[in-house]
């Protein structure tokens, strides 16, 4: 079952013009068919194609369990132009994540990542802490549990970069498998009934290839992310949104 997906409702469109369209991808929805996720039967590409009645081209990717801004081109030529911007680092992306522990106010994470084929690539992420919380929930030898809401800005686009970088600095994203903390993931499932990954692609900024105008697309968080913000941070959620 793809948690967070309501296939009776159309995909939420955040932006659309004659060249591009962006959706707020739910947690659990694959961008396209993948041999590593044979259990999935629905995909963002096909759902959006059917919803718009025309072919769409994903110009970037989000992990299955990551929600938020997902951008598509409406032609092969626009797809090529947008992918060029991504390769040149001209697209600015911002994510929100709920992670284990209290993170520093700011941190630059400069940690190369190894691909499955063994090639090592530079990877850089800027972290900014938005909120911290400590709740009366025992965990291990501790009588309380600490969490942080962080803003993550990657300047490279490596596979699972944010997930791996947060694990590297010992503040894994809640709900992340396999890079996160399985004990924390079990705690959230058992105590809160939460079984997704708390990573949200909040915003994307770029220059429109046709109009040369700046474009900013922002996605409100999905219901489960919002619920956990309320559970962990209480009234602070309203100040963040």
Automatic annotation (TrEMBL):
Transmembrane segments: none
Sequence ranges assigned to domain Pseudouridine synthase RsuA/RluA-like in this UniProt record: 19-168
One Pfam family per UniProt: PseudoU_synth_2
UniProt superkingdom: Bacteria
UniProt GO BP: enzyme-directed rRNA pseudouridine synthesis; tRNA processing
EC assignment: 5.4.99.26
Example GO molecular function: tRNA pseudouridine(65) synthase activity
SUPFAM superfamilies: Pseudouridine synthase (SSF55120)
This protein's UniProt keywords: Isomerase, tRNA processing
Catalysed reaction equations from the record: uridine(65) in tRNA = pseudouridine(65) in tRNA
InterPro entries in the record: PsdUridine_synth_cat_dom_sf, PsdUridine_synth_RluA-like_CS, PsdUridine_synth_RsuA/RluA, RluA_PseudoU_synthase
Function description: Responsible for synthesis of pseudouridine from uracil-65 in transfer RNAs.
Protein name listed in UniProt: tRNA pseudouridine synthase C
Source organism of this protein record: Spirosoma radiotolerans
Source taxonomy: Bacteria, Pseudomonadati, Bacteroidota, Cytophagia, Cytophagales
